[in-house]
Amino acid sequence: MTLGKKRAVTLPDILLVSAIAISALLILAFFYLHDKDAVRQQDKRLVITADGEPAGSYPLDEDRIIEIGDTNVCEIRGGKVYMKSAECPDQSCVHSYPAEREGQVIVCLPNKVILEIIGGDSGSDGGLDSFAY
Amino acid sequence: MHRLKRGLIMTAAAACILFTGCGSLNTEKDGLSRTGLYFDTPVTIRIYDDNAGELMDGCFELCDELERVLSAQDTSSELYKLNHRSSDETGVSEALADCIAMGLEAGDMSGGEFDITILPVSSLWDFRSGEGSVPGKDDIEKALRHVDRSGVYVSGNKVSFTDPEAELDLGAVAKGYISGRIREYLRSNGCDGAVINLGGNVSTVGERPDRRPFKIGIQKPFHDRGEVAAVVSLREGCVISSGTYERCFEENGVLYHHILSAKTGYPADTGLVQVTVIGDDDMLCDTLSTVGILLGKDRTEALVREKGYDVKLVFTDENGIMTLYSPDGTESGLSEGEILDLADREPSGKEAPDPADREQRK
């Protein structure tokens, strides 16, 4: 039995393992960064849907005003999302509490506009899992 | 060659572990959330499960399917077709038959204050647009003549009517039926945990990934949507509110809201602005929350006692005072922002009215 045969792991083995492990990590990193459901606390975002279609996604840490079609205007201010105005008679979305936590949603039913917060951990900061009305 | 094989197996295993870890990172711990618009209301579902994506698709497919049956707005829905029927007896789907049966049951339990044949009256009122006004007295009286649940019969999957102009309004039961079906679907597919919000009706499945109870806020009446009156902490169950602050308008200083008395054709006026029902049967809780507004606190408590429903109720009066009623017959005050800890509540299977009872109406 030679020394060479005794060595279970050789340099090519190590290289192969490393190469595959690194590509696995890269793929994982890709999913981690791109899958909206895996976005973490620091990457909280506002996701807008209008009439069933995606209508933009914005980070919560930058203040801005966003026009959604001709009907609605929302605002990100201080990490919170407000529906600033809506072209509809009932105005219930404008009178919604600002959304700031993962899973919180503001909906303008007449114009089919949904503002949804994604990213972050919904319950660990004392937040609510849901809201009955 | 052996070494290469072993190396490959090792790395494949490592990759598998990494990917599984990735999958669970997404949806087992953090949950997957989706919002859609169905039944003229937002539906938000959050699922904690490795298999959340597939379960989520299943939930929304179920919403699609039930929307084709129960939608009040869609002129091609089964409900709409039933209301615009050409014969006195119509075959209906099980979903529609179940909702009608529960609606009829609700009529009985409320002593006729609630009636699923209220549609000719409720369609005179416009609580949705925010521009509604009080309908004429004569119109209401005329429409009230067609409000009579005793002329509606459900037998198996057949529904028959004695009044050809009778029309059904399933607004008080349909949402509860739908969230119940979503829960049933998730449970039977082994879902670890989920929170369903169907236009303000909240129900939960399983548990949170951290095993702590779910925390469900209750809307503070006549305040911005999202302002909390109290918080319910519970495991599996449902929290369903009805209130006079939803879908309402004001005319000459009087508030007109969407919960209509079948006896008068006008909004109920029982001194309550909100009733929240916490229990296990979505459809029963949904129905009871509406019936609660119509009957008022004392009669609702008596009803729950008499029927032995295992539910908790939170009544809010016009001054914002909250009272908690428990199935053991006790009443206690609930202060603003208080957390109602029902994490130890034992889910009960006996509270739901027997479906067989619902069907034996002919």
Description:
- The complex is a heterodimer of chains A (133) and B (362).
- With 133 residues, chain A is α+β, with helices and mostly antiparallel strands.
- Chain A folds into two domains: 3-34; 41-118, N-utilization substance G protein NusG, insert domain (mini-chromosome maintenance (MCM) complex, domain 2, Sandwich).
- Helix content of chain A is 21%, strand content 33%.
- Chain A is built from two helices and eight strands; from the N terminus they run ααββββββββ.
- Chain A has helices at residues 3-6, 11-34, and strands spanning 45-50, 53-59, 64-68, 72-77, 80-86, 105-108, 113-118, 130-132.
- In chain A, strands 2-1-7-6 form a four-stranded antiparallel β-sheet, with no helix packed on it. A three-stranded antiparallel β-sheet of chain A has the order 3-4-5, with no helix packed on it.
- In chain A, a hairpin with a 4-residue loop joins strand 6 (105-108) and strand 7 (113-118).
- Chain A is elongated and about 80 Å long.
- The termini of chain A are far apart.
- Residues 36-41 of chain A have low confidence and may be disordered.
- Chain B contains ten helices and 17 strands.
- In chain B, helix 7 runs antiparallel to helix 8 (282-295).
- Chain B has a nine-stranded antiparallel β-sheet with strand order 1-2-6-7-10-13-14-15-16. Chain B has a three-stranded antiparallel β-sheet with strand order 3-5-4, with helices on one face.
- The longest helix of chain B is centred in the N-terminal third of the chain and has 28 residues, at 2-29.
- In chain B, strand 1 (32-38) and strand 2 (41-48) form a beta hairpin.
- Chain B has a domain at 209-351: ApbE-like domains (T-fold), CATH 3.10.520.10.
- With 362 residues, chain B is of the alpha+beta class.
- The model of chain B is unreliable at 20-25, 350-356 and 358-362 (pLDDT under 50).
- Chain B has helices at residues 2-29, 52-70, 78-83, 94-109, 119-122, 137-144, 174-188, 282-295, 297-307, 355-359; strands at 32-38, 41-48, 89-91, 152-155, 158-161, 193-198, 201-206, 214-219, 228-234, 237-243, 248-251, 254-257, 272-279, 312-317, 322-325, 331-334, 339-342.
- Classes of the chains: A alpha+beta (133), B alpha+beta (362).
- The interface between A and B is large, with 52 and 61 residues.
